[in-house]
Write a structure and sequence with these properties.
The protein is α+β, with helices and mostly antiparallel strands. Helices cover about 30% and strands about 20% of the residues. It has helices at about 5-10, 15-20, 25-35, 45-50, 75-95, 130-145, 160-170, 215-225, 225-230, 250-260, 300, 325-330, 390, 405-420, 450-460, and strands spanning about 65, 100-105, 150-155, 180-185, 190, 190-195, 200, 205, 210, 235-240, 265-270, 280-285, 290, 315, 320-325, 340-345, 350, 355-360, 365-370, 380-385, 440, 470-475. Strands 1, 2, 3, 4, 10, 11, 12, 13, 14, 15 and 20 form an eleven-stranded mixed beta sheet that branches. The protein has a three-stranded antiparallel beta sheet with strand order 6-19-16, with no helix packed on it. The protein is globular, with a radius of gyration of 24 Å. The mean pLDDT is about 95.
């Protein structure tokens, strides 16, 4: 190891790592040195002081006000005209190749009881298509309809990068051109013991964890994906998370409104179902848009009501954004990204004195991560567009219950049933109004309402749908 790196490690107060390094094999040393080289040793002491040795307190600004948003559907003739103009512009930008999709897919399916990258989890109710396949088919349909190949960037973690690429290759990229699918790896941060010392997980490795979805922007820079986007003429990035198959992968209205308004970073919002719903709160502070996490929102503000009884702080964040490429370039110009860190106490296995792995029974370390919504206050212009929950947000975080694979499948069925009814097809309904059949429409054929009407006009349903049927359309 170079003396310069040794000096940086020592200056950061992490000399125990050098002792360990000097005692292991050359192969283990090579892996450790690669990990050491990725750490910002100069920034580490301040992170430890502020987020580990003391528990940071979230300061809630005194000037918080609810964030304004564009309502959906539009409420005035002016808004309706604006949205029509924006949607037409969005279609044009997509057709010109100026839009790319970006999926954050670094997680595993552990909470789903599934062994593998979360994107490989089967989600659709009839054909059991995976999350990745569902998005891929949507991208294929948009590419076909627009006459251009929509580029798709997928951010993996070091843990699932190979498995994700292998999955796509084994499935022939689900019909996409492999040149339009781009994989890149999220950055990591070392786990830090409660004493401020970095944790050694194995003979050849530190304990590392993904650095949060805020690290997406720097990972775009460091991986070369940002330069590749520029070379390909991409100006707008449609950002979403892998566990939400209802999200539009490239929404013409959202993209067009972002461009028309000159926004650097735009967000979709959902009207919260209750004051304490587990969604970040869109707020204005210091004249800038910010997100206050649900766990940090003061009770009085979360429960504040307008004169008509509606929530004052109504706007919840489902982590759906459009981001201008030039904004990412601006934020990462010097090869760093200065976003606040967020602390999480974790039980992190470590290498014990007898050189065996110890699995602690209580939290013994801190993992820090950054969140992409903390980029919002750094933007000179932002906008928020309301979204219909049943149309754009079906998170798949647990196997059953709230925000689960079970609830997501039910939402997919209801959205497809509504689209079928829009196309004039009778769908059986239960007494409570929910669909009395298991239905699935392929996103390879239908990605929005207009597609549904056109598809079923050309592919009529010849056998009426009966209660209890299990049917798929447009495989």
């Amino acid at each position: 190891m170079q003396n310069e790196l040794r000096s940086r490690i020592s200056a950061a107060g992490q000399g125990h790592l050098l002792t360990h390094y000097d005692q292991v094999s050359a192969e283990a040393q090579a892996k450790l040195e690669r990990q050491f080289a990725d750490i910002n040793w100069e920034a580490l002491p301040a992170i430890i002081a502020d987020y580990v040795l003391k528990r940071p307190e979230t300061a809630i600004p005194a000037d918080l006000t609810p964030a304004p948003f564009f309502p959906f559907p539009p409420k005035t003739t002016e808004d309706k005209a604006l949205y029509e103009k924006a949607a037409a512009l969005g279609e044009k930008l997509i057709a010109e190749g100026k839009v790319a999709s970006l999926t954050v897919a670094g997680g595993q399916g552990t909470r789903l009881g599934f062994d593998g990258p979360k994107g490989t989890y089967p989600i659709t109710p009839v054909l059991h298509k995976t999350l990745f396949q569902y998005f891929a088919e949507s991208i294929a349909r948009i590419s076909e309809r627009s006459g251009t190949k929509l580029h798709w960037y997928i951010m993996c973690s070091e843990l699932n990068f190979k498995a994700t690429k292998d999955f796509f290759e084994a499935n022939q990229f689900f019909g996409l051109d492999n040149q339009q699918v781009h994989f890149f790896v999220q950055g990591t941060m070392p786990a830090i013991g409660l004493d401020g010392k970095l944790i050694i997980a194995a003979e050849d490795s530190l304990a590392l964890a993904p650095n949060g979805h805020g690290g997406t922007l720097l990972a775009l820079r460091n991986s070369g994906a940002l330069d590749e986007m520029k070379a390909n003429g991409v100006e707008y990035i449609s950002y979403f998370q892998v566990d939400n198959p209802l999200v539009p992968v490239a929404d013409p209205l959202f993209v067009g409104l972002h461009a028309l308004e000159g926004s650097q970073m735009s967000s979709r919002m959902l009207p919260k179902t209750c004051p304490t719903e587990k969604l970040g709160n869109f707020c204005i502070t210091g004249g800038r848009l910010a997100v206050i996490e649900y766990s940090d929102m003061p009770y009085e503000l979360a429960n504040r009501r307008n004169a008509d009884g509606s929530l004052a702080f109504l706007s919840g964040s489902p982590a759906i954004h459009v981001i201008s490429r030039t904004f990412v370039e601006q934020l990462t110009a010097d090869g760093t990204l200065s976003l606040p860190w967020h602390r999480a106490d974790k039980k992190v296995p470590y290498l014990g004195a007898d050189r065996t792995t110890v699995k602690p029974e209580t939290p013994n370390a801190v993992k820090v991560e950054s969140f992409i919504f903390d980029s919002l206050p750094l933007a000179s212009k932002t906008i928020i567009l309301e979204g219909a929950r049943k149309e754009i947000f079906g998170p798949t975080k647990n196997a059953t219950g709230v925000d689960s694979a079970e609830s997501c499948r039910a939402m997919l069925i209801e959205r497809d049933a509504r689209r079928m009814e829009l196309a004039g097809i009778k769908v059986p309904r239960k007494a409570d109004g929910t669909t009395d059949a298991i239905l699935e429409i392929s996103p390879r054929r239908v990605v929005d309402d207009c597609d549904a009407v056109e598809f079923f006009k050309n592919n009529p349903v010849l056998t009426p749908i009966q209660a209890g049927d299990i049917r798929s359309f447009g495989k």
